[in-house]
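dumping these here so i dont lose them again. two proteins, back to back, each one seq then structure tokens. dont judge the mess
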Amino acid sequence: MPSLLPSITVVLLVAISTALYAQSSDANGLRIDGALTFDEPVVTVPATVEDEQATARFRFRNAGTQTVTIVGIEPMCGCTTAELEQRVFEPGQGGSLVVVFDFGHLTGPQRKRIVIATQIGSAMRVEQDIAIKCDIPGALTLAANGTLVWVVGKDSGAKTLRAHVTKPGFGTVVDLVPPDNKAFTVRLVREATEGAYTIEMTPTTLDVDKPTSGMSEVLIDVGEGRIRKQPIWGMIIPKESK
């Protein structure tokens, strides 16, 4: 009968390795423990309305007793990139990872995760997470968070959103993208006050039997050929059935 000892030994070694590097997570599920000890696993970067990107430097060190090799860096969003000067770190040695977050058309609170894969010694592989956080101000400030709601039986006709450029002199609304749902139409009205606008949205029908939504986008020219987009939403809530 074949001996079970080698198999048992392998299982025990895997179990011991897993226990030694059992990972805990923060409130958002970020795996904050791993082969490398980061000064700040989550870095918050302030942003202004004029910024196009944010850069964060994540400092870390190998606090263990074995050589750690970074074998992979995987941003979870195509809007982030990461640069590393070296990949092998002896016990006690430190380094840093630079993450660049390109905002694109994103606005509001953002949290982008990057997965760091490391190899400890010559065998064990461990993954841990870092994240860059940023609250991106939109070029346009919209009333009601840019959302209009119709309740069937209570509301009808057009509704309006007041809007103004977040920073005076920075940005001009040039157009509205037609809604992605033909249940709505939109119209832009330029106010007499510079940088102020009214956006009118009208449902083409209120005859719906389930919640119906549509999104349009406001196109804002912020200079040098750069166009930013901010969404506006319409939602129709059907009458409750008795």
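---- next one ----
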Amino acid sequence: MHLRTFHPGHYILRHWQGLLPLWVSVVVNLVALRILASLVQPLLSPPKAAIAVLFAYVLFAHIILLVWQVVGVLRAAERYSSHSGFHTPALGAQIIAIMAIILTLPQYMDAYHSTLPPPAAADYLERMDREHAAQYVLQVSPDGRSLSFSGLIALGATRRVRAILLKNTTVRKLLITSKGGNIYEARGIAKAVMDYSLATHAIGECSSACTLVFAAGRIRTLAPGAQLGFHQYRLEQTRRIPNVDPGQEQERDRKFFLSRGFSDDFVARIFQASPVGIWFPNTRQLLSAHAIQRIDVVE
């Protein structure tokens, strides 16, 4: 009995010429080898291997090998169709070959991205800081006597406000227009307002967390037509955040409003307003509650 010897070179050539059985060309030489190639690539990606090793692997597995696989399958499909007269299996093999090419494209991208250095933490923090800072505008008046804040009270706002106040020692008043934002940043700005003994002046709408900043003012005034808006506290997320209790946060700020001279009745009403709505007290209510001293124009 004569056993046929397996010769790799002969096998490779027969696939390339489309002389192997169609199912062998598709299942073994195309699908199985494509799966194997995708599993091996992560093992050769930096930092596990040098970039040159990954480049050589991509060149072999996703270009040379892929061309050999696809050409062999297409030729085997054509040969099968012409010899058997059945076109459906041949068409299926051709579709699989095309899909193999399409599914290999992400492998090129993965290889490319794996060679890129990871973004530095400092770069990420700087980008996030720029995104937060873009949500509000800080500007010192030409005479240097006032600082205006307009926009959302976002992360990093306290740090920027303090930096400006440290550099501009003649600032005596904070002009603020905001519909709220981060309550912790609002408390930080309020602390800065008190540390620098600034007056506060609301222009337009100052609601939600903005009222904490406004309440910190040594003298509190409203521009004509300006409004202060108050409401109960709530978590923006549907799920609770660990170690954050809206009730405790509300109580903390209730005491803050009282310490700034707001009347008991007024503060009690502040936290009776619906968390999904805003209470805008009128000028008479604000004056009688000592929330503001007067209606004034910007000096």
